[in-house]
């Protein structure tokens, strides 16, 4: 019910289906399920259903709001973009190192090479042609990335790390000829969970404001 105050139901279902299909490579359905449960656990503490019971708000409303926060950048609704929120909250990264240990591939755009080699000439030995995107590159030694410090989880080439590492947990994808930053929905990444939680709170409050106004 709450989500319908923010976006038309059929339209939401259509874009959710498309987003899940196109993002399948990054976010499997099982992983999304675990992820949404992790956000829900935190959201119900921040926005208790009990408090809004009189207005008819239920747990399903929270779940529906999270589904919207997963896939829609708030900038389309006049709010901050995924990137704006993420860059203001780097403290959400717990430096657990999972992204550096578990990533299937660390993409390097061909235009990044000059800058990367200028700051770290040794990197030349650690880069190979990208198997999926001809003309681009990727790190050679991954899972775990050879540059992660096993004790501190810090990046050994932090100042010259690839752009995908700088943007994580946001992932740049092509959609309809345009680039957009989607969130890598990993339940084990505190940064991703907090990011969707923050968006869910903003969406919940806006929906509630509209509900009370009606
Ligand atoms: S971005 Fe996420 S997975 Fe990577 S270190 Fe930070 S919290 Fe861990
Ligand atoms: S280059 Fe650094 S930030 Fe990127 S995956 Fe390796 S250790 Fe992590």
What does this 3D model show about the protein?
The protein has helices at residues 9-22, 29-46, 59-71, 82-87, 98-102, 113-119, 163-167, 190-213, and strands at residues 107-108, 127-129, 137-139, 170-175, 178-183. It has eight helices and five strands. The longest helix is centred in the C-terminal third of the chain and has 24 residues, at 190-213. The two termini are 13 Å apart. The model has no long low-confidence stretch (mean pLDDT 93). It has a three-stranded antiparallel β-sheet with strand order 1-3-2, with no helix packed on it. Strands 4-5 form a two-stranded antiparallel sheet. The protein is mainly alpha-helical and 214 residues long. The protein has two domains: 3-93 and 173-213, no CATH class; 98-168, no CATH class.
Summarize this structure as a short list of keywords or feature phrases.
214 residues, mainly alpha, 2 domains, three-stranded antiparallel sheet, two-stranded antiparallel sheet, 8 helices, elongated, binds iron/sulfur cluster
Entry summary:
By secondary structure, the protein is mainly alpha-helical.
> Helix segment count?
8
Alpha carbon gap, first and last residue: 13 Å
The description of the largest β-sheet is: 3 strands, antiparallel
Q: Approximately how much helix is present in the residues?
A: 40-55%
Determine the strand fraction and express it as a percent band.
Answer: 5-15%
Q: How much is the average pLDDT?
A: 93
Number of strands: 5
Bound molecules: iron/sulfur cluster
Using only C-alpha atoms, the radius of gyration works out to 19 Å
Name the assembly state: single chain
Q: Assign the structural class, choosing from mainly alpha, mainly beta, alpha/beta, alpha+beta, or little secondary structure.
A: mainly alpha
- The structural domain count equals 2
Order of helices and strands: HHHHHEHEEHEEH
Given the C-alpha coordinates, what overall shape results? elongated
Q: Strand order across the biggest sheet?
A: 1-3-2
What low-confidence regions span 5 or more consecutive residues with pLDDT below 50? Answer: none
């Amino acid at each position: 019910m709450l989500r319908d105050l923010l976006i038309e139901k059929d339209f939401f279902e259509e874009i959710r289906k498309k987003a899940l299909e196109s993002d399948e490579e990054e976010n499997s359905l099982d992983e999304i399920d675990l992820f949404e449960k992790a956000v829900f656990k935190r959201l119900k503490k921040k926005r208790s259903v009990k408090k809004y019971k009189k207005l008819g708000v239920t747990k399903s409303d929270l779940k529906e709001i999270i589904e919207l926060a997963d896939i829609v950048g708030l900038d389309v609704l006049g709010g901050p973009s995924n990137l704006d929120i993420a860059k203001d909250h780097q403290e959400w990264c717990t430096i657990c190192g999972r992204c550096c240990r578990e990533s299937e591939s660390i993409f390097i755009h061909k235009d990044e090479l000059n800058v990367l080699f200028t700051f770290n000439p040794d990197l030349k030995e650690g880069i190979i042609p990208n198997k999926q995107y001809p003309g681009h590159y990727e790190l050679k030694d991954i899972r775990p990335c050879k540059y992660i410090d096993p004790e501190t989880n810090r990046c050994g080439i932090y100042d010259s790390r690839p752009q995908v590492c700088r943007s994580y947990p946001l992932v740049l994808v092509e959609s309809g000829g345009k680039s957009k930053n989607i969130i890598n929905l990993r339940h084990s990444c505190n940064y991703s969970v907090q990011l969707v939680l923050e968006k869910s709170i903003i969406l919940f409050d806006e929906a509630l404001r509209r509900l009370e106004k009606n």
